[in-house]
C-alpha cells in the first residue's frame, strides 16, 4: 500500500529532506508504508552528486542546496510539480536502472493523458518533447526541450528524491544553471506547450498512471 501525500503551498527544501530521511528510515525497518509526496518548492537550485561548478551560472540568484541525489544541477520552484518517491525498489526487482526507466515511463504515460508525446534519449535521464515550432538544431535535427527531470538516491534499496514535471514554472529561472549539465537543449512546460493544465489535473493523471508502471 502506497500512501499519497499532496502538500499545498511551498515546502522548504530542508523540511522536505528531513521528511524523506525519516520516512525512508521508517520504511526500511517496516514501520511505515511506501510514500509518494507531491509538492512545490520556493525557487532554488539543487546540486546532485555529479554537479559541475561551471554549470552553476548565477550562484547568488537562488539558494543552492546539496541534494545528495544522482544527477547534476536542477531548478525547483512554484509551478513545478515535484514528486518524491519513497518506494521499496528491493521488492521491485533490485534493479536501479529499471526503476529509473519505470519513472520515465510513468512521466510519459502521464503526459500522454494530455496528448503530449514524451520521449527518452540515450545518455539523457529525464523526459523530452520535440519542438517542431522551434528552429532546427545545427545538425538538422528537431529541437527538443526537457519537460521532466529525474534524480534518485537509494538507501538499502528504498528510494528517495524523485522527479519534477514542469507545469507552469518561470522558465527564465532555469537560466541560472545548465540544467542537468545539458547545454544543447532547452526546457519547457505544459503551459509553454499551449496546454492550460493545472497542478490538480497533473496530480490526477499521475495517480491514474502510477499503477501502469509501478
Quick structural gist:
The chain has 214 residues and is an alpha/beta fold. It has helices at 13-28, 96-112, 199-213, and strands at 2-10, 34-40, 44-47, 64-66, 73-76, 80-86, 119-121, 124-131, 143-155, 158-166, 186-187. The chain is globular.
Structure overview:
- The chain has 214 residues and is α/β, with parallel strands linked by helices.
- It is built from three helices and eleven strands, in the order E-H-E-E-E-E-E-H-E-E-E-E-E-H.
- The strands form two sheets. Strands 1, 2, 6, 7, 8, 9, 10 and 11 form an eight-stranded mixed β-sheet that branches. A three-stranded mixed β-sheet has the order 4-3-5, with no helix packed on it.
- The longest helix has 17 residues.
- It is globular and about 55 Å long.
- Helical content band: 10-25%
Measured by DSSP, the beta-strand proportion falls in 25-35%
Classify the secondary structure makeup into a structural class: alpha/beta
Order of helices and strands: EHEEEEEHEEEEEH
Q: How many strand elements?
A: 11
Summarize model confidence as the mean pLDDT: 92
Low-confidence stretches: none
Counted by DSSP, the helix tally is: 3
In one word, what is the shape?
A: globular
Q: Tell me about the largest β-sheet.
A: 8 strands, mixed
Gyration radius over CA: 16 Å
The CA-CA distance between the termini, in Å, is 12 Å
Amino acid at each position: 500500500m502506497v500512501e499519497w501525500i499532496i502538500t499545498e503551498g511551498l515546502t522548504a527544501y530542508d523540511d522536505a529532506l528531513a521528511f524523506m530521511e525519516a520516512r525512508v528510515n521508517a520504511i526500511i525497518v517496516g514501520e511505515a508504508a511506501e510514500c509518494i509526496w507531491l509538492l512545490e518548492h520556493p525557487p532554488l537550485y539543487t546540486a546532485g552528486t555529479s554537479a559541475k561548478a561551471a554549470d552553476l551560472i548565477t550562484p547568488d540568484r537562488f539558494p543552492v542546496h546539496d541534494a545528495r541525489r544522482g544527477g547534476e544541477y536542477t531548478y525547483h520552484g512554484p509551478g513545478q510539480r515535484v514528486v518524491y518517491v519513497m518506494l521499496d525498489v528491493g521488492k521491485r526487482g533490485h534493479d536501479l536502472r529499471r526503476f529509473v526507466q519505470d519513472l520515465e515511463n510513468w512521466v510519459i504515460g502521464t503526459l500522454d493523458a494530455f496528448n503530449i508525446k514524451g520521449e527518452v534519449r540515450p545518455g539523457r535521464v529525464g523526459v523530452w518533447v520535440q519542438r517542431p515550432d522551434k528552429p532546427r538544431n545545427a545538425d538538422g535535427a528537431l529541437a527538443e526541450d526537457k519537460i521532466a527531470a529525474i534524480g534518485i538516491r537509494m538507501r538499502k534499496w528504498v528510494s528517495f528524491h524523485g522527479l519534477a514535471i514542469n507545469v507552469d514554472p518561470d522558465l527564465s529561472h532555469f537560466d541560472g544553471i545548465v540544467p542537468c549539465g545539458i547545454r544543447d537543449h532547452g526546457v519547457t512546460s505544459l503551459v509553454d506547450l499551449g496546454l492550460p493544465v493545472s497542478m490538480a489535473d497533473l496530480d490526477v493523471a499521475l495517480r491514474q498512471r502510477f499503477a501502469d508502471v509501478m
